[in-house]
Protein: Ribosomal protein L21
Amino acid sequence: MLASMTMTATTASAASARARLSSKASAERVGTKVSSLIRANKRDVRCEVTAESSINQIGFATPPSTGAAPKWDAIIEVGGSQQFVSEGRYYECHSLKGVEPGSKIAFERVLGTHDGNAPTWGHPYVSGARVEATVLENYDDKKVIVFKYRPKKHYRRKNGHRQAMTRFLVTKVVKA
Structure:
């Protein structure tokens, strides 16, 4: 069973035309092949749909609920937030007080670890787990402009803010 259909529409309704054609083809449980050709004046769109009767064409390459393995070794609490970290990567957080570039630091507040098979969660922290890191630099983030005003009242205030940040390299994740 082979069915063909040709349609000409404006660009505003081209998406709806494609949707109608593909929904008609999926209602017949057939595989669809949609190709569109935009003419030089870009006002007319020509859609061609060729439908063939084949149940085997419909399916997923991988099931939609599965994905790649997680890319994190631990979840740490640092600088007022939580971060997924892994060895050999660098991360940024709000400024850590009293640390200089090149110094070694250890994060004891580990919320969870992952060893490749199953995660280990703490209540609230994993006992015995820690993340060791080296401070790369302390810097100021991009400037954020804060502009306050009251309409019709001649009240205008413009302030800038640069958040102090720390960049660190995770060197070792000790899992409990």
Q: What stands out?
A: The mean pLDDT is 75. Residues 14-27 form the longest helix (14 residues). The radius of gyration is 28 Å. The first strand starts at residue 2 and ends at 10.
